[in-house]
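tokens incoming
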């Protein structure tokens, strides 16, 4: 019997209708806002590193006293010498420059994500990669400078570890819209 209809119409199997995927613009906008917040964090850190001068004796004594409460054995002079050596090794300048670049790239990536541009995913990931490079350089320079007390170097290394965590978070964040179909549909 010839009916002129395709074979799948006459079969008894149910046919699943295609449901169109609706773009959810809230996903890339939320990710963009998070990237912009990350850029602000990096900008503040960059400003702090680039404007770091020598510690005053009051600041060094206060830092030494706070670490001594936790079991360290430091004087203000030892803290000043440690930070001077870090400054001479280019710690603050290097981190300040990398963090400035990361802040600019994260800001651009966040703006592109808010505008719904797929390029924002890659720009945001690039900014996050710069955060990871920053943390790597920070830990490398810290490893080359001998600290007068382990607690002082530990507190500095914890800041670098914090930036590793932020960098990994910001590295994963831009890819979320690509993993979710409605987020992917919201990007051009």
């Amino acid at each position: 019997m010839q009916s002129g209809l395709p074979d799948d119409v006459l079969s008894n199997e149910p046919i699943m209708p295609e449901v169109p995927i609706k773009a959810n613009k809230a996903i890339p906008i939320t990710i963009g806002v998070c990237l912009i917040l990350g850029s602000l964090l990096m900008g503040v850190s960059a400003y702090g590193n680039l404007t770091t001068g020598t510690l005053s004796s009051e600041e060094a004594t206060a830092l030494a006293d706070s670490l001594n409460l936790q079991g360290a054995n430091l004087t203000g002079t030892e803290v000043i010498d440690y930070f001077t050596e870090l400054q001479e090794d280019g710690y603050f300048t290097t981190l300040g420059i990398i963090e400035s670049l990361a802040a600019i790239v994260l800001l651009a990536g966040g703006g592109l994500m808010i505008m719904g541009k797929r390029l924002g995913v890659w720009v945001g990931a690039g900014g996050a990669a710069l955060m990871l490079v920053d943390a790597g350089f920070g830990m490398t320079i810290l490893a080359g400078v001998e600290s007068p007390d382990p607690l002082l170097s530990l507190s500095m290394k914890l800041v670098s570890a914090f930036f590793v965590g932020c960098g990994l978070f910001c590295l994963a964040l831009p890819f979320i819209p690509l993993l979710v179909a409605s987020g992917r549909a919201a990007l051009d």
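note: The chain has one domain: 25-185.
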